User: Fold this.
Amino acid sequence: MKPRVAFFDFASCEGCQLQVVNLEESILDLISVVDVVSFREAMKEHSDEYDVAFIEGSITRPIDEERLKKIRGNAKLLVALGACACIGGVQGMSNEWSPEENKKEVYGDLPGYEHTGDDNPFFEKPIHKAVNEVVKVDAYIPGCPIDRNEFAKIATAVLMGKTPKLPNYPVCVECKKNENICVFELGEFCLGPVTRAGCNAICPQYKSGCEGCRGFLDDPQTNAHKEVLEKYDVSVEEMLKRYNMFNFRKEGY
Amino acid sequence: MFGVMERNLHIHYPDAPPMHLHRDELPNEPVRYMNKKIMSKDNWLSFVDRLISDDRREVVGVQSKGEKFVFDPLDNAKDLKLDHDVTILPPKKYLLPTCEELMRFSLSDGFEMESCSKAVPRIIIGMHPYDLIAIQQMDQVYLGKNPDENYKNRRENTLIIASDILTVSDRSFAASMGTCTVSDGFDLLVTDLGDAVVVEEGSPAGTELLSKYTSAQDAGEGDVAKVTQLRQKKQVEYKVAVDVDKKEWAGLLEQNYEHTVWKERSEKCLECGSCTLVCPTCFCYDVEDTASIGLKDGVRTRTWDGCLLRDFTLIGSGEVFRESKEDRYRHRYYRKGKYLPERYGFVACVGCGRCATQCLPDIADPADIFNTLHGSNMRGEPKILAIPKVEEPDMAEPLLTPRPATIKRVEKMAAETFFEIELDDGQPLGHVPGQFVEVSVFGYGEAPISISSPPGGNTFELVVRTVGDVTSKLSTLKSGDKIGIRGPLGNGFDVEGLKGKNLLFIAGGLGIVPMRSLINHVLNKREDFGEVTILYGAKHPKEFLFEDEIFRWHERKDIVHKFTVDQCTGDVCWEGNIGVITTLIPKVQFDPKDTTAVVIGPPIMYKFVIRDLKGLGMPDENILMSLERRMKCGVGKCGHCQINGIYVCKEGPVFNYAEIKGYPEAL
Ligand SMILES: Cc1cc2nc3c(=O)[nH]c(=O)nc-3n(C[C@H](O)[C@H](O)[C@H](O)COP(=O)(O)OP(=O)(O)OC[C@H]3O[C@@H](n4cnc5c(N)ncnc54)[C@H](O)[C@@H]3O)c2cc1C
Ligand code: SF4
Ligand code: SF4
Ligand code: SF4
Ligand code: SF4
Ligand code: SF4
Ligand code: FES
Assistant:
């Protein structure tokens, strides 16, 4: 029997699922080896019988945690899809402030603001968690959004019973292979040296510094990196802002 | 399968011509082409345009990328730069691409594989002398004995139009390295004199190219003098110099293995690998299998790798052999200044300065390191680290493509799986005890596995412990399934040299697997050897391998054998010795001075066994061992398995303790 695969989304922009839908011809190849039983982005049917669950989005509210734990219970393998699921994503930044402060920032004094209190389940103190802060994760497909080739690679590894391995070297490696001009030489700064490669150094390719959307390496050389940032006159403030953008208090996975 | 031979191979061989190349591939005798031509700038440009439009080869040349330069395909001669300082990546990218397919295989029906060594015929324009010299070094590594088929094919299809350096790069120290000019190795060499261009012919192919696409006059004495003047003028424009001659680098390194500079600088290292990736004389690689998304087929790809990256020496058990940042940082300099020079006769740095420019913390500059070592009087314990001189055996060609083989028999052992394997071409493997093979499971990868059976016979045996991707998949295969085999690889034991000797075998855990090949060989030819003692330890009684064979040892009166387990828990208990393997040594009688010990086991075992054997008075040279390292190529090219400068896959895995003990990375 073909393995049954389901996709679920939590707090996310659904951009990663869209990347999967956009696999185009390859999606047919994928479907020839798996049965997709649940995929809100692409189909109406839904089933709770699945072997592999792909999770998109960060986990925000207690009701989400419950839902995720149920999925984990049903699935043999659970794959975190995208930066939100792998490391909390951009919304992780909001963890720096209290839910009240965040609410105020977003809604200000708009009418209806009072209904966003703790009594409303949709506004229960949102703390953005990565999926692995709630349940065990078997494989990660990082990036914001994910890279289609990497999705294919990790998905086939999972289907073949291989260990789904991510690169454990920094973005700089791909940057060099692509013969990019290092953005430090262009007056920008970059988290590439501490960030896990796999995106083909796409941001530096377009002359902008890496923001770390794929999460840190297993053993990021943060001290050496800080020295480099200092050497290039990057202020501590700018540095922290960038570090926290995707990786708020994260140490990789 | 291989591309058509394009032209006479024009490659610089410093030593004798390698015997593996067919005679007609080599120039009959090294003809020195000294012809120099001159043409106007306009004629030069139209020559390049004619190459682009009329020659069937791809024409690549140096072009601007922002403020920097890169080699890229040329559309128009006007885009070509001859006044560049240095390109971001060296032209090695055309001979050893950043990522290349080695083979394609089918995963769905049957067993099909196809090696991919198609080469795009290419003309490269604008290569600076230091890059050309780096390519000559790569030729020695990749085309020496046992050439790499993909590299060879590309190299034979590449024509080089080198160019003299007009703009000296800020961080280059090519003048100090003697690499800012060249006298051979190119097909053509251009010197841009502003209004005119002098072109020197370096090969028949270069001469032919010129006569086919342009008509140039012979350069006059005045023109040639201008070229010489230009070179002399440029030579003194270098801002960076190395104060110590490159011939002395090796000696300096021998004295300074423990210098504080390694630790100090490495603390700033980002482990980004840039210094190795951009270097024209770094050519280590990694190999990976991937499957298409429908699992119908897959490819084996080779990509650039580098010793500054931590996982370069990582093995399945999680162990990293070059563990500290300091060790990784130091290794690069030793490889350039000592290991490769001793192995091949060239200093593996051509002074291009790319590493210095690309290293953000600015700690990768060899000029700086060698000047620092030269200027400081810190000397630690000298480390000679000589490369053993081993005659390289002929390996089956092609080097990178496995031979199809069939699994004849599978048996589940303790936690391992036993395989009997036959090559599909019906040939015996032809190994000696201690050698290994690279086993391919297509889509999963390749893993080095010791040959466990003694020499002889049309099949051979392997025992595989399930660790990661390749070994897990192997453990699910059945009789009749196909795998790929490369090898036999490695040196193996000097069986002839062991004849007449008293032998003490000490095996721990999986160490029995390669040792069994030698033990069974010795037992088959028992009369050729002296006393035989076998000590074998496992963690737990359940983990002993080859129980049947061991049982038969009991019946033999001509050997002594003892077993031990580290511990004995639960239901299965045991009447034999309990304790680590060293506790067996005092229980057997042997003359330490007149016995050869063969020791194979997990890394930690060696230290203790050697300590005890030496304690009994056994001379170092009587101890033989087999070492394990991460491996990819198995043929001394990819760089992963190095113990300092030694390739375990080639000079090992069997080592004499006396030879290896001085290497800090060995034990
Ligand atoms: C000379 C030699 C002889 C060996 N003989 C045996 C044997 O007889 N039986 C046995 O079970 N094992 C043996 N090993 C160890 C075996 O090679 C590894 O367990 C195996 O490579 C793990 O591969 P994997 O794909 O399952 O693991 P992964 O962790 O997925 O490894 C990925 C790749 O890394 C490399 N690698 C990982 N671990 C090792 C390692 N320990 N040594 C070298 N390369 C490694 C391989 O290229 C491997 O394909 C030997 C190793 C060496 C160097
Ligand atoms: S990781 Fe980025 S693209 Fe993917 S769902 Fe989250 S926000 Fe969207
Ligand atoms: S641009 Fe960023 S990723 Fe690229 S080399 Fe520079 S620091 Fe590294
Ligand atoms: S360069 Fe950095 S921010 Fe950009 S995609 Fe890659 S990991 Fe993400
Ligand atoms: S070590 Fe540095 S200077 Fe030497 S060849 Fe390599 S990149 Fe160039
Ligand atoms: S380029 Fe510099 S920082 Fe990067 S690995 Fe090399 S020495 Fe370390
Ligand atoms: S050099 Fe590649 S495995 Fe030894």
The radius of gyration of chain A is 19 Å.
